[in-house]
Design a protein that fits this description.
The complex is a heterotrimer of chains A (313), B (349) and C (517).
Chain A (H helix, E strand, L loop, with lengths): L1 H4 L4 H26 L7 H17 L4 H23 L6 H23 L15 E2 L9 H6 E2 L1 H19 L1 H11 L1 H6 L4 H27 L11 H11 L4 H25 L5 H20 L18
Antiparallel strand pairs in A: 1-2
Helix pairs in contact in A: 2-7, 2-10, 2-11, 2-12, 3-4, 3-5, 3-10, 3-11, 4-5, 4-10, 7-8, 8-10, 11-12, 11-13, 12-13
Chain B lengths: L1 E4 L5 H25 L4 H13 L2 H26 L7 H16 L7 H30 L3 H21 L34 H18 L1 H11 L1 H6 L4 H28 L10 H11 L4 H25 L5 H21 E4 L2
Antiparallel strand pairs in B: 1-2
Chain C lengths: L10 E12 L2 E12 L3 E5 L6 H9 L6 E6 L2 E2 L5 H6 L2 E4 L11 H6 L12 H15 L14 H14 L4 E5 L7 H16 L3 E6 L2 H7 L2 E6 L2 E7 L5 H9 L16 E9 L12 E6 L2 E6 L6 H9 L6 E6 L2 E3 L4 H6 L2 E4 L3 H5 L6 H5 L10 E2 L2 E2 L1 H14 L16 H13 L5 E5 L7 H16 L3 E5 L3 H7 L2 E6 L2 E2 L3 E2 L5 H8 L13
Parallel strand pairs in C: 3-8, 3-9, 6-7, 7-8, 13-20, 13-21, 16-19, 19-20
Antiparallel strand pairs in C: 1-2, 1-4, 4-5, 9-10, 11-12, 11-14, 14-15, 17-18, 21-22, 21-23
Helix pairs in contact in C: 14-15
Classes of the chains: A mainly alpha (313), B mainly alpha (349), C alpha/beta (517).
């Protein structure tokens, strides 16, 4: 019974949405990349870099929003690198993505050590504070969960709406989807495939980096090593789970986060009978199971992971 | 800008571009060293000295290279067949778990029987661990990149659970670590009193065996065909799915040997920091070697040298040792670019 | 078609001295011509004559090494498709450039609004598409997904794409290759309407009768050069054919002989539905010794399913496969090879060869497990290389060495390697799926000769081709495939092209199916 009661507590739903927020950013970022035909396995590293870049900006005296902007810019830089190597040069998206993750992660750790050589425990910043939206936050249960969060969470909601709008209702969105379906369709209409894909990867990577920054600037208040802890890989699973659609991916992210928040609380309820590692494993296991369920039916963007060569048959 | 296939390159070109890649990596690393406020010449001198400047340094480099040879081979084999095994880290830990389970007294046998038994069981465990994602890929179309990556996290948590549970060393002062393997299950040291152990010999022998497999056997031929063009391979009657399964078994088994050799040869017991990312670094090692098994030995030693050298340098020059990881990641990206440039030329119009 | 008869009309397009080289090959050799308003030029030439290269330059996909393209008096910047589009040049590619999972509307409007516009103006686009399709008789459902459309409908979308952008010059690259004769008629009717409004058309083809039917002027291309220019009214098929081919390459002669025993027989075979064409629907087919059976049909009607069934890459869902009176229950590519079926796949690059492996590695791909090439799992590279050298010599393959990557070979040489591999060991059945697609005249004749040689020595040959002329020239009997069903066979010369065309459109099948595709 106790296990069920968790679902009725406000703190559980508040936590679920908080856990979902970085996933929402990064999932939308990956979704944009893949919709344009580029798998971005740099996500894990880009989130790490974004988490650090945002945090160090604030630590150095910058405004919180400036931190978000710097994080996004960091994402753009790595995104352009990934884009350059995989789009015009046509290198393996798998290998390059792993390389970007290794590079972004190690550069982050290196920079951390160079900029803070003396510290033993990571210094703290003043993070984003929850901001209750008047009226809406008074709705029982879901009110505080959805509408008493930090501004970055609200930005995550806006991002989903914006991504959905752009992909389906604007000329540039149509071009992004087309370039992931059939690049020659885009080329034949006088649009550069390289520019579209690199642009999509840059924007998508910026969102990933903001997702990482959420962790250091909203969920927690400092940067520590290995804090992304596989969240990027989970976002890749979430994109598949959401069949490359922003709305479905959002639902996937929230479900996943709810599950994650639930397992933490369940650990306390069960009181140590089951090793805690089992609970911690569940999100990863769940991601794999979700992939098995949807993978068969999934309609991939047709040109995902297919490099494009101008004028090729 | 377009890419045009080049005629089969000569030896000079084959070596020229990779050399350029290494040079580019050094230039980029030098910039970072400058930012960190040190002299690149001094730093690289210290790295080189730390990696190969003394007998101790050299042996340390070879010791560090040993697990990288195994994970590098695992990745090289899998990537040849375009099976994207990013889970060598997990397979390594499973191999280590099996080594500890069998090597801490559960099985009593003389060394010449016990060690091969442990090796075979470790390989089997690693092989089966990768078979899962391979089956999911073939049967359900689940991308193995994601599954192998996620399995890394699952397996680490699993190992953590074991180390706080059934495998916990009662004499370990509460630390999450396993008991030490018995003397019969330990690999001998190659030089008395030094850390370099027999695992290095097994690693090099594995590389030679894998070279033969890839070059001379039908299995190696099948793997290359499947990796280059699965559709054409299927048309020619090559059983693509079965080849992928065999590849998975081989790759997982090789990665598991890394865990075996670290426990039985070097550490003696299993802890959660057994591998500082050997599985991921294996990807770099394999790519630097252009997936050639013999090249893996050389590139593993090179990469290990950077790590060992950077550790030594960091102590004296004050540049964070993470510079080694940056260099390795940069080398991966510049090397894949270089390999592409040996096969294609860029035409700007 | 030109009401004004040419001559005085305004020049809309001028190509001057266009030259393009790919490595040692000159794909386009100082080609120049003008296109007048309201004129239809046919660009005639064999495969590999340089037609498509020329159009890719015109449209900005390629940059010419020399020469200029002028549209309406202004020189186009090279290598910029959007400049060509802006200048009013529209192109209907041979392989459609459509995004399958998107709607007709989205495909047509793609790139017509500024990419920075905040909103896609759906209503305006819809109104304009409806207007255009009404004016030119190009019926289409604007909100349909491309993947739900037939080939003919997709071509309509391609034409609408050009018209939507106010194209004044329309380039059609082999537009009839994928159409039934009826659809071809409809296309020609549309083109006439377009020309009547002052549009100019470049019609690229290698089919003489179409060129004669549709154009005002014919430019014949051969090996990248213009080998002749004629007003359509002043020429005939014979003259054009001579200009097109140059030195006459002798096509092999078919000597009538009677077929032998049945080698392979399909009885009531159906296959599972799969993307990319119709599945087979309870077909019966018997291939006999010493006979070429030609399979005609509009692409996507089950040819792919039949080809992969005989090649062994798909299993029958129901029905039986009998080879020499033995019912084969476990069907696979290996089983097909073991029963001595030689296979020439449709797509050399995607399925026939492994581009980044060597000639040697490619030629043994079907037989590497035989004792000839391996013992106990160890490959005998010496013997493999000898085999490669034998094929290179016997089939006159031009390649630097057996160790060269196959990717570096020309299409014709690649096809010769495939022939050498497939014909090794004198197969009793030969599956030739589009065996001459994209090859130049010489290579075509070579492939034809080899197929006839195989037939003459007693092999049962199944020739699947979209080129009806090829089927009619080689096949001892013709079967038409439509919607996964086979027509009864008819002997060489029994049916006219017209009658075959009707069958291709689905008429005259046993159960009286009459609806056209």
């Amino acid at each position: 019974m106790e296990a069920f009661d968790i679902l009725l507590t406000t703190s559980f739903w508040v936590a679920a949405i908080r856990i979902a927020s970085p996933l929402i950013f990064a999932t939308m970022g990956e979704l944009i990349c893949e919709r344009a035909g580029v798998l971005n396995l740099g996500i894990e590293g880009i989130m790490t870099a974004g988490a650090f870049a945002g945090w160090i900006t604030v630590y150095a005296g910058g405004d919180l929003w400036l931190g978000v902007a710097v994080a996004a810019l960091t994402g753009v830089v790595f995104g352009l690198l990934h884009g350059f190597l995989t789009v015009p040069l046509g290198l393996s998206q798998h290998v390059t993505g792993i390389g970007i993750t290794l590079l972004a992660t190690s550069l982050t750790y290196f920079t951390y050590r160079v900029s803070l050589p003396e510290v033993t425990s990571p210094p703290k910043i003043e993070p984003f504070q929850p901001f209750a939206i008047p009226g809406l936050s008074d709705i029982p249960l879901i009110g505080p969960a959805l509408f008493n969060q930090t501004p970055l969470t609200y930005l995550a909601y806006v991002t989903v709406a914006l991504v959905a709008w752009v992909l389906y209702r604007t000329p540039v969105g149509i071009a992004v989807r087309a370039v992931g379906e059939n690049p020659s369709a885009v080329e034949a209409q006088g649009i550069s495939v390289t520019a579209m894909r690199m642009g999509a990867v840059a924007v998508g990577s910026a969102l990933m980096a903001v997702g990482g920054a959420f962790l250091t600037m909203s969920a927690f208040n400092s940067f520590f090593f290995e804090m992304i802890n596989g969240r990027g890989w989970i976002c890749i699973a979430l994109v598949v789970f959401g069949s490359w659609r922003p709305g479905k991916a959002l639902i996937g992210a929230i479900l996943f986060a709810a599950f994650d928040a639930y397992q933490v609380r369940l650990q306390q309820v069960t009181g140590g009978v089951i090793p805690y590692q089992i609970f911690l494993m569940m999100p990863y296991v769940l991601s794999i199971l979700a992939l098995i369920v949807v993978a068969r039916r999934a309609t991939y963007p047709k040109a995902l992971m297919v490099p494009y060569q101008k004028g090729e048959r | 800008m377009r890419l045009e296939p080049k005629p089969t390159p000569g030896l000079a070109t084959t070596l020229l571009y990779p050399a350029g890649a290494i040079l580019a990596t050094i230039v980029i690393a030098s910039l970072l060293v400058l930012i960190a406020g040190a002299s690149p010449f001094n730093v690289f001198w210290l790295v080189a000295k730390g990696a190969a400047g003394s007998q101790f340094a050299l042996l340390e480099t070879l010791t560090r290279a040993t697990p990288l040879i195994f994970t590098g081979l695992a990745v090289a084999v899998a990537f040849r067949a375009k099976l994207w095994n990013i889970g060598a880290e997990a397979q390594l830990y499973i191999g280590a778990v099996v080594t500890v389970v069998l090597g801490t007294g559960a099985v009593a046998m003389p060394t010449p029987a016990l060690i091969p038994l442990i090796m075979i069981c470790a390989m089997l465990a690693g092989a089966l661990l990768l078979l899962g994602p391979a089956v999911l890929k073939v049967r359900f179309g689940v991308d193995e990149v994601v599954t192998t990556l996620l399995l890394n996290f699952i397996v680490i948590l699993f190992v953590s659970m074991l180390l706080e549970g059934v495998l916990k060393d009662p004499m370990g002062l509460g630390w999450p670590q396993s008991k030490r393997v018995i003397a019969d299950a330990q690999l001998p040291r190659l030089i008395q009193g030094k850390r370099l152990h027999f695992g290095f010999v097994i690693a090099v022998a594995s590389a030679v065996v894998m070279w033969v497999v890839m070059k001379k056997t039908t299995l190696g031929y099948e793997m290359r065909a499947v990796g280059n063009n699965a559709e054409a391979a299927r048309f020619a009657g090559i059983p693509v799915n079965r080849v992928l399964m065999k590849t998975a078994l081989l790759s997982g088994g090789l990665a598991a040997l890394a865990g075996f050799s670290e426990v039985a040869g070097l550490k003696g017991n299993l802890t959660l920091d057994l591998s500082p990312g050997f599985g991921y670094t294996g990807i770099v090692v394999a790519m630097l070697a252009m997936l050639n098994p013999l090249g893996v030995v050389a590139s593993a030693i090179f990469v290990a040298g950077i790590f060992v050298g950077a550790d030594a340098m960091s102590r004296s020059a004050g540049v964070p040792s993470y510079i080694a990881q940056v260099m390795v990641a940069t080398a991966l990206l510049t090397m894949v670019t270089a390999i592409m440039l040996t096969r294609y030329r860029i035409r700007w119009k | 078609m030109n009401a004004e008869g040419g001559g005085e009309a305004e020049t809309v397009l001028r190509l001057s001295n266009i030259t393009k080289r790919f490595g040692p090959l000159t794909a386009s050799d100082s080609v120049s011509f003008d296109l007048k308003r309201g004129e239809v030029i046919a660009l005639l030439g064999e495969n590999g004559a340089g037609k498509t290269t020329l159009m890719n330059i015109l449209f900005g996909h390629y940059v010419a090494d020399e020469g200029t393209v002028e549209a309406f008096g202004k020189t186009l910047p090279p290598g910029e498709p959007h400049a060509a589009l802006a200048a009013g040049i529209g192109m209907v590619h041979q392989h459609f450039t459509l995004a399958d999972q998107m709607t007709v509307l989205e495909n047509i409007a793609l790139g017509t609004q500024s990419l920075f516009a905040p909103r896609f103006d759906r209503g305006r686009a819809l109104a304009r598409i409806e207007e255009l399709s009404r004016d030119f008789g190009l019926e289409i459902r604007a909100d349909a997904l491309i993947s739900d459309l037939s080939v003919g409908e997709r071509q309509r979308v391609e034409i609408l794409k050009a018209l939507y952008r106010d194209a004044r010059v329309l380039i059609l690259d082999e537009p009839t290759a994928v159409l039934t004769p009826l659809e071809t008629e409809a296309l020609f009717a549309t083109l006439r309407k377009l020309v009547a409004t002052g549009l100019s058309i470049i019609f690229i083809s290698h089919k003489l009768n179409e060129v004669m039917a549709v154009s005002d002027r014919v430019l014949v291309l051969r090996s990248g050069r213009i080998s002749g220019e004629r007003r359509t009214a002043d020429t005939d098929r014979g003259e054009l054919a001579a200009l097109m081919v140059g030195e006459t390459i002798k096509e092999p002669e078919v000597v009538e002989h009677s077929p032998g025993d049945t080698v392979i027989e399909l009885v009531a075979v159906s296959t599972a539905g799969r993307a990319g064409g119709a599945p087979l629907d309870a077909i019966d087919l018997a291939l006999r010794e010493g006979e070429i059976t030609g399979l005609a049909g509009v692409s996507g009607n089950g040819q792919a399913a039949l080809a992969s069934l005989i090649a062994g890459t798909t299993k029958p869902e129901s029905g039986t496969i009998r080879i020499r009176d033995e019912i084969v229950s476990d069907w696979s590519a290996r089983a097909a090879l073991a029963h001595r079926i030689g296979r020439i796949p449709e797509d050399r690059h995607a399925t026939g060869m492994i581009g980044d492996m060597s000639v040697t590695e490619n030629v043994i791909s079907e037989a590497y497990r035989s004792p000839r090439f391996s013992r106990a799992g160890l490959l005998d590279w010496k013997s493999a290389e000898q085999f490669a050298e034998t094929i290179i010599r016997d089939y006159d393959v031009k390649c630097p060495s057996p160790n060269a990557r196959v990717r570096l070979l020309s299409g014709g040489n690649m096809q010769k390697l495939i022939l050498g591999r497939a014909f090794d060991g004198e197969p009793q059945v030969i599956l030739a799926n589009q065996p001459t697609r994209g090859l130049d005249v010489g290579a075509v004749a070579y492939v034809h000769t080899k197929l006839l040689e195989a037939r003459n020595r007693g092999a049962a040959v199944l020739l699947i081709s979209e080129d009806l002329d090829e089927v009619l020239a080689l096949a001892d009997r013709v079967i038409v495939i439509s919607k996964g069903r086979l027509s009864p066979p008819s002997k060489r010369g029994e049916l006219s092209v017209r009658e075959i065309g009707e069958r291709m459109a689905g008429h005259g099948f046993a159960d009286g199916v009459t609806d056209a595709a």
